[in-house]
Amino acid sequence: MKTRGMRPNLPPIGFLTDLEDEARARLAEVGHFITRPLDALLSVQGRPHHAMALILSGRISINVHAHGDRIELATLGRGEVVGEMCVIDPRVASSTARVISASANLWIIERSAFDQFIEDDPDSGLVLLRSLGKVLCRRVRTDSELMLRKADQMRAHFLDIDY
């Protein structure tokens, strides 16, 4: 997804919605635009991961391997972000992210470039961090709701046991 002479712009989607046009243009410069084909991996659970990706088009499956099973946690699309945890808390990837559409157009930023952007423009950096915080909070709330529903299902199952 490279253009000759002119660099693509980051649209005001996802965690970039509240960012000023000028700040999005500067942010576009410190990241890079890529296209990944079907089945390409963006991260692998348990392996080092150093970049965050904004999905510009396409679909990404997020899954974990636990106790020999593969569990799909989410399917993400345009405007959603993958790998946001690594720019805030640099550890190994907590899940595997795989392209599940014919291709996916992404904007990628490495953790070091993200940190530098925040250092160079603390006001825009604060907007970004708040937006990423909202993404993380939404995901924690969704996960908590799922766990509560599963706990209720388990409790109902055990209440039905005959002794």
Portion in helices: 25-40%
CATH-defined superfamily: Jelly Rolls
Question: What is the number of helices?
Answer: 4
Order of helices and strands: HEEEEEEHEEHH
Name of the top-level CATH class? Mainly Beta
- The total tally of domains equals 1
DSSP, total strands = 8
Q: Segments where pLDDT lies below 50 for 5+ residues? A: none
Rg value: 18 Å
Portion in strands: 25-35%
CATH architectural grouping: Sandwich
**Overall body shape:** globular
Strand order of the largest sheet: 1-8-3-6
CATH topology descriptor: Jelly Rolls
Decide which structural class fits the backbone: alpha+beta
The biggest beta sheet is recorded as: 4 strands, antiparallel
Distance separating the two termini = 63 Å
Chain-averaged pLDDT: 89
